[in-house]
Amino acid sequence: RIQQVLTWNIIGYKRDLINQALTLAALSFLFAFFHSFGGYAEGIADWEGIKESAVINVIMIAVLFILNASNILFTTRTRNEFVNFMMLPATHAEKFCSNFIFQTVIRFVCMIASIMLADALQAIISLIITHDAYSLTLATANVLYKNMTGLEGLQNIAGALGLHSTFILGGCFFRKRQTLFTLLAWIGIPLLIAIVVGFVGYGVVSLADKLNYSITVEIIPEWEKYADIAGTVINVPWATLCYWLSYRIFRRLQFINNRFFN
Known about the structure:
single chain, mainly alpha, flat
C-alpha cells in the first residue's frame, strides 16, 4: 500500500514537484550561462565555467535536500489535507514511508531531471555560439562522485545522513516554520552545550588553582582525523534515533495540535 499512497502523493502534489523542478532548472541554466559567458564571448565552450556551475548545482541540491526533509509533513499542512491523508487506507508506517520516499527519492529524481533539462538548454546555446559544448550533467555527477567516494566520501555521506535525519525530526516535531526552527535548534543546542562545557571547564580550572593543583591539556596528534572518524561513527546511531523519533511523532499526530509543536 506504500505504492498506492505514494501515487496519491505524486498526483496530489505534482504541481509542487513541477514548480521546484522548474525553479532548479532555471537557476542551474542561469548559473551555467553566466559562468560560461566569458567563453561565449571568445567563441569557445568554457569547461571551467561548467565545473563552477556544477559545484553550485550540488550546493542547490543539498539545500533542497534539507528543505524537503523538513517538509516531511507536507500532506498535513491544512485541516482538509490532514483529514484526507489520515483517511487513506494505509497504516501509519506506510504513510510515513510514502512521505519519506516522496521527499527524498522522488524529489531527488526530479532534481536530476532538472539538471538534465538545464544541461540541454545550455548545450544548445553553446553549440549555436561556439559549435562545441560540455555536459553540465556529467560535471555535476563528477562533483557528487568525488564527494561520495573514499574515506572523505564516507564521512560526507554519514554527515548528510545525520543532517537529513535531524531535519526530518524537526519537520515532524515543529508545527510551523519547520526549516527555520530546526535550523535554529541545530545551531543553538550545540552552541549552548559548548557554552555550558566552557563554563564547567573554567570552573574546574579555577577550583584546581585554588587547591594548588595543575591541569594540563595534551592535544593528540592528528586529532582532526580522529574527530572526523568519531563524527562518522556517531552520525549513524544519531540518524537512526532521529528517524525512529520522527516516526513516533508521526504516529501520534492529532487533528488538533499545539500551535508550535506536534
